[in-house]
Design a protein that fits this description.
By secondary structure, this protein is an alpha+beta fold. It has a single domain, classed as 3-Layer(aba) Sandwich (Rossmann fold), CATH 3.40.50. Helix content is 32%, strand content 32%. The chain is built from 2 helices and 4 strands, in the order βαβαββ. A 4-stranded mixed β-sheet has the order 1-2-4-3, with helices on one face. Helix 1 links the parallel strand 1 and strand 2. Helix 1 runs parallel beside helix 2. It is elongated, with a radius of gyration of 11 Å.
Length: 71
């Protein structure tokens, strides 16, 4: 079965819901989360049971997992 890599942009209600759903589906690999606010981002990361790596970009803080290709 093919695995699709997913980057979720936005960690509000919809983004968090999508991140949790992708995390639970075996056909998808959640490779990253991007959010403007650290509170929603940290809450979403905690909901997936994953460890976050924080990076700051010109557009604002972003959170992504080690396998994320977005820098």
């Amino acid at each position: 079965m093919k695995t699709y890599k997913v980057l979720v942009i936005g960690c509000g209600n919809m983004g968090a819901s999508h991140a949790r759903a992708y995390h639970q589906l075996s056909a998808f690999e959640l490779v990253g989360l991007v959010s403007r606010g650290p509170e929603s981002r940290e809450k979403t990361v905690a909901g997936t049971g994953r460890r976050a790596h924080l990076r700051h970009h010109r557009t604002g803080p972003a959170c992504h997992y080690p396998r994320c290709g977005v820098h």
